[in-house]
Amino acid sequence: MPVWPGDEPFHYHLSSAIAKGSIANVGSLQLSTHSGTHVDAPFHFEQSGKTITEVDLNIYIGPARVIDMTGKEIITVEEIDMLQLEGVKRILFKTMGWKNPAEFPQCFPYIEPDAVPLLASRGVCLVGVDVPSVDPYESEELPAHHSLNQHGIYILESLLLDSVEPGDYELIALPLPLENGDGSPVRAILRR
Fold first, then answer.
1. Residue 150 · residue 27 · CB < 8 Å
2. Residue 38 annotated as catalytic
3. Which tens digit of pLDDT belongs to each residue from 44-71?
């Protein structure tokens, strides 16, 4: 599993194994809180932001709409303005911007910070993307992260939407209750 350059690489091994005489198999994990599909708590990018245990779990459960943004380099105000979002609280953008799942991408679609107020005005509380970040790879200020947080919209990143058709689903993507956590890996599922 490729991780953001500099992050803790994912590693799993059996620290106890039946094959080696133990009474049970017991695994051990080593990973970044931003490994694979994950949620960002505001504390990830703002020192005084909420930690993962302070975020309402209801954000990560409920109706969601998958919207096809394949081929878009930037999710802009104009793109958002054309969407029918009445009653939609959770949006998952399918960009197909992560071309090779075996390599971490250095270029991928991102959200224009100016589009965030429009999302907020339509009642959106969660934005998900199928790429590693809502901001460009080279960003050092994370303007989309900050704008989303200022407008009360939470972030779900690195979704696997390749075989998911655009449309309405039920999303379940619960984070682990990591004390003082800046984020958490999730097992994100969509149900019709």
1. no
2. no
3. 999 999 999 999 999 999 999 999 999 9
